Protein 1
Amino acid sequence: MVSIRSFVKLSGLSALLLVGVFCFAMSGEGIYLSLYKMALAFYFLAICVVLGIDISRLWFDGNRWVDLLIRVIIIVIVILFVTKKFRKSFLYNLDFLREEMDRFSVVTMLISIMAASIIIYWPNGHPLSIGNVVRLLANLIMAGIVQYTVFHLYIHLGKEHIYQEENRILAMNEQLLRFQRALADEAEERAARIRHDVRHHCLLIQDYVKKGEMDQLLYYLNQYIEDVECAGVKRICENRTIDSILSVYARQAEMNGTKVEMDVVVAEHSPVRDIDLVAILANVFENAIHGAGQSGVADAKIKMSIRQKGHKLVIQCRNTICPGQRFDGEAGIGMASIRKTAQRYDGETDFSVEDGMFVTRILLNIEY
């Protein structure tokens, strides 16, 4: 309405903000990943425009139909490249990109892309010369190198963090196995004591039979049955992996003077991987033991509840904390590991403080 000439010159640049807002609103990704994808698309667009215009001007006297044809050809090449080469790698490493992209690196990448694009699109007449074409192509190549470097840097950082997390889980597994070995040694000692006492029990039973004191014999046998049942190992739940993890950490908590209450109802077989159960339950229990131990409360306790309802696995843990302590929302290594593992099952996590207790809630969606 003000100046059609300036509109023609600057409409391309002025539309970037509006198109960017629209693309971000339509995207289901976070802001950094959305900015990366928009910058990549804009980079491919710049290639189409530059090559289409300059090739038609250099060898076809600026024929607009040649310009259009060249752009269509380049778009087809870009689509084939993205589909065959880039898309598979991008989707395969999408989790790394979501987690590793930060403000500084994305801003740096955008500045390099936009700087090259502004040089290309700036309405200064673009005089036709080999030097000018080389300068534009050099800008595009440098921007492409930045894109490529940033993309693979994120993947490398993501894999490094995955390796670190796997090493940490392996260390937790090793610790869990040590505790299990200690419990097995205790059970073996108990069995040895029982075998040693069997001889005395048999002699006493033989004596009762010889004397015909059947009432005393029955009373003694009832006491012996009660002692055997009390000495037996009680299963926490039918699932052996969960039972093993909870048994080990419950024993550790009780050794630290923390009372443990558990309400666990889980099927014998679960589609949740054992290593993921370790990553979740071991981290939850370790955080609970640490929080209860540091609370300074005499009757510190941990309440663990695990319920399987249809295709949902619900985990809730409450542990005593220091009076007046608050949760600032910052996630430690254990919480980050719990969240990451829950995401594999499209799950949800929640951490909060309620009535002097730190509460961890985890919901996993499981499919058989």
Note: The chain has a mean pLDDT of 78.
Protein 2
Amino acid sequence: MQNLMNDLLQLFQKDVPMIELSNAKPFLKWAGGKTQLLPEIRSRIPTNFNRYIEPFLGGGAVFLSLAPQEAFLTDANEELINCFRMVRDYPEELLRSVAKFKISEKEYYKIRGLEPSKLSCVYRAARFIYLNKTCFNGLYRVNKNGKFNVPFGKIKHCTLANPEIIFKANRVLKKSKLFVMDYLETLGKFAHRGDFIYLDPPYLPVGKFSDFKRYTKNFFYREDHERLAIICKELNQRGCKFLLSNSYHSFIISLYSSFKIEKVQANRFINCHGNKRGKIAELIITNY
């Protein structure tokens, strides 16, 4: 009996996440981030599933909010995945490194000009956070050579890394596995019956200035949306549950006509025209 009690005590001390972990928030600004859409997404999460898989990680708002017991998180953006790994593995060192940066236009272009592959993993992640918080509109955009090319955002003062937010994210990330991997390989390798997959691809543009697909040197074209829709049908046949978010567009509706499609309203804060920021229609698509 005593051994049983000890085992139960260790279980509750080690394996069961604390409730406040679901209050973890993104530590990055991210175009198309899902913080504003979280209530709509959370209300549609299935009650039972095996593992959580997210192949378009981005800012990770949904993952951080749900704090799943086991997660496979991937993204084609190498800088992004490295940053998440450092938050998971070396939060103290990361915070110390970020604290050394100065916010100025001169410093910004100096840091932007560094070659990430020649930096330590921690400093590389600190650079990523610095650029993310001080660049124009919090965008992450690269050129065809994969070089970050967003201009300075004229920021004078901001919190680059909030320790409380970093440590909450660190605790949620402890049970996650992070890989630099595209969505095709991720879903082909990791998705099995009973798993839940959240899909947040670069949205199909609905206007002239709606372009959030340049997270890596490769674009996400209409053909990619068609390919993803085919994969979603395969996931459904495989016995996986998925929730996909995308722009409110007739093309997307036609691709997923065999699934449950709901129109929701989300806030958009990143737009080159200030008067075009505000509520915008989006789609939530599920196979359950």
Note: The two ends are 42 Å apart (CA to CA).
Protein 3
Amino acid sequence: MNYSEQKEWKEIQTYLPEKLHFTEEYHPVEEWWKWKEHNVHLDCFRNPNAKAKVILLHGVGTNGRQMSMILGGPLFKEGFETIAIDMPTYGVTQVKNRSRVIYDDWVDLACDYIDYELQKDNRPIFLYGLSAGGMETYHVAAKNKKVKGIIGMTFLDQRNQQVRDETARNIVMSRIGIPMASVSAKIGLGGLSMKMSLASKMSTLCNNEEVMQIFYRDQTSAANSASMRFLDSYGNYQPVMEPENFDVCPILLTQPDKDRWTPLHLSTPFLDKIKKVDVQIVPLENGGHYPIERPALDQMVIAIVGFINKIMS
């Protein structure tokens, strides 16, 4: 299956500003990349003349095509090359065994893909991540150490109890569900799965209720399920480098100001610990967690272009 056969993203697209709609002339090219036992889907806006590449990482309620719509395409129009990765169990990536996938695989895959791109040419690489993808950009940069900058829609350290409490569906899931996922993984029940909408505050993914109903039908994004093994690894991931020691590259947080899932106060405790590199925070006016609103979408692109160009200058 590829995205030409999938309807949900096309329905979501109708709620975006018309200039973001894909056409016969303006659309990502679908590529495949073999990683371990998985056939990984890449949504690409290739540009061999671009001075930099931006790799887009989705979260636990989105997929690569949804990244391409709001950011991959717009950044391509600004002269960059963009690649949105469908992490294993999300999007249309072909997975050997869903129940064996853990969050560490997402980090390792992204690190290996960066190396793959750098083997082709030495153009600078930046990372962008939405939702859980924001913190993933940090985890990847800390491990790979070869990116020039990271941009997140949020930076959530799931080891922080307040972050767990406010991003889980409810306090029971936060205080009992995540620890039970750890227990399940340890006693051989790691393959059991749970819908991410039961584990998390998925209802706040998008501020438009009609779009949320589309998301809820999309098993490649918000309607996806995750194994106890994945939830355990995601909630307890230990970065290679703690924030106090992070010195790899500058960081930009593009924070939607109407984000009901991950408001600013959940990212600042982590970012405040980072002292060795520049950290910039840009609010996105009227934007939800997955922003479909203006001027948030325009402000996001402007902020990211400015961030990259400053580093490249």
Note: Residues 103-120 form the longest helix (18 residues).
Protein 4
Amino acid sequence: MTVDAHLHLWDLEHGTYSWLSDAVAPINRTVTFDEVEPQLRDAGVDRVVLVQAAGTPEDSWAMFDVAARQPMVAGVVAWVDLRDPSAVGDALDRWAAAGPLVGIRHLIHDEADPDWLAQPAVRRSLAVLASRGLAYDVIGVLPLHLEHAVAVADELPGLRLVVDHLGTPPVGAEPGQWGRLVDELGSRPNVFVKLSGLTTLGPSGRATAVELRPYVDRALDAFGPSRMLYGGDWPVSTLATPYAETFAVARELIAALSPAESHEVLAGSAVRAYRLP
């Protein structure tokens, strides 16, 4: 089995995505599961996890609607307002009733405050996620985002954290602070990392496996294959490469692993991180 643990969908007629603009013109349009499904099957992907792309209920409802109709969808990483811990429980109940809720994400990299994760209200809400057995996806674009992820992992050891896109390594530069923080995160057993969103990095915006290997190897050393999970980051990844090539790059980056270790990255880790059926 192969699991793509990071797939996006959006419908511009029924939702608002403020980050979509002419700067990402090829994907500034409605993208549907019908469009990506044949590409997934051609690549040999069996199951997917849909991940939120906007901090709105409409975006999450749309993902659950797809999950109800598409058996390939194994889980949904939805959105709730983590700034209101008194309402988080009810919001999670609604999503759990709507479909296969496996985690929550917030676009912290779009927040003006880089310390967004440090807010006491957000921390209380994350504790609610931990009590429900749900994961929390961290978008680490700045080193400060990863520093807060380390603090959350220590404060809430029962919360599974999933660091998206390898924590955004500085492709083309020395690992530096990113490398040190990846090592710290990897030492926390409740933290996972996604092999996702990498081909769009680097000076060219089209990173190759050769360019990415030092950072992936550093993350593998820190987390091991059992806490690294593959994600295609479609359709954002298509700004650099078609889905087939994105998947091929991921396979090349883990080619030195044993078959059992490769299976962990391509399926087992996603099952554990998100408690997929």
Note: The mean pLDDT is 97.
